[in-house]
Amino acid sequence: MPSINRCTIAGHLGKDPETKTFANGGSVCNFSIATSEKWKDRDGNPKERTDWHNIVCHGKTGELAQQYLSKGAAVLIEGAIRQRQYEKDGQTKYVTEIHADRLHFLSWREKSEQRSAQKASEPDTGIQDDDLGDIPF
């Protein structure tokens, strides 16, 4: 019987993606996304549980994540679940990650567009940054 390691998960980023570049020219982009589940218990009280998932992207997928995703963005991830272990302070630690090979941007704007939109929403004081000179505060 063949085995399949495939998952699809959709959620919101908890923080901006972080990319590490290696000496050989390769890179890896890491971020985490949250998924939430809501239900009512036996007494009718609303309950909610949030799970955090570690996402790893390589190559072009990682470049796209770094360029277009930021904290709070909604994204759908397709990839494989992988587990790894490492030693820290004499104890073995285990990490479960989703190695993404496809990203579907559910809400996004390029980070430079986000910064431009943020600046556009700021009030215009009529003063340019260059006009301020060396202000001692």
Q: Could you list some keywords that capture this structure?
A:
2 helices, 137 residues, single chain, alpha+beta
Description:
The chain has 137 residues and is of the alpha+beta class. The chain is built from 2 helices and 6 strands. The protein has helices at residues 59-68, 111-121; strands at residues 7-13, 18-21, 27-40, 46-58, 74-88, 91-105. It has a 5-stranded mixed barrel. The relative contact order is 0.19.
Short description:
This protein is of the alpha+beta class and 137 residues long. The chain is built from two helices and six strands, in the order ββββαββα.
Q: Number of folding domains?
A: 1
Compute the CA-based radius of gyration: 21 Å
- Overall body shape: globular
For CATH, the homologous superfamily is named as Nucleic acid-binding proteins
CA(first)-CA(last) distance: 69 Å
Strand content: over 45%
The assigned structural class equals alpha+beta
- Parts with pLDDT < 50 across at least 5 consecutive residues: 123-137
The total count of strands amounts to 6
Gross CATH architecture: Beta Barrel
What name does CATH use for the topology?
OB fold (Dihydrolipoamide Acetyltransferase, E2P)
List the helices and strands and how they pair.
Elements lengths: L6 E7 L4 E4 L5 E14 L5 E13 H10 L5 E15 L2 E15 L5 H11 L16
Parallel strand pairs: 4-6
Antiparallel strand pairs: 1-3, 1-5, 2-3, 3-4, 5-6
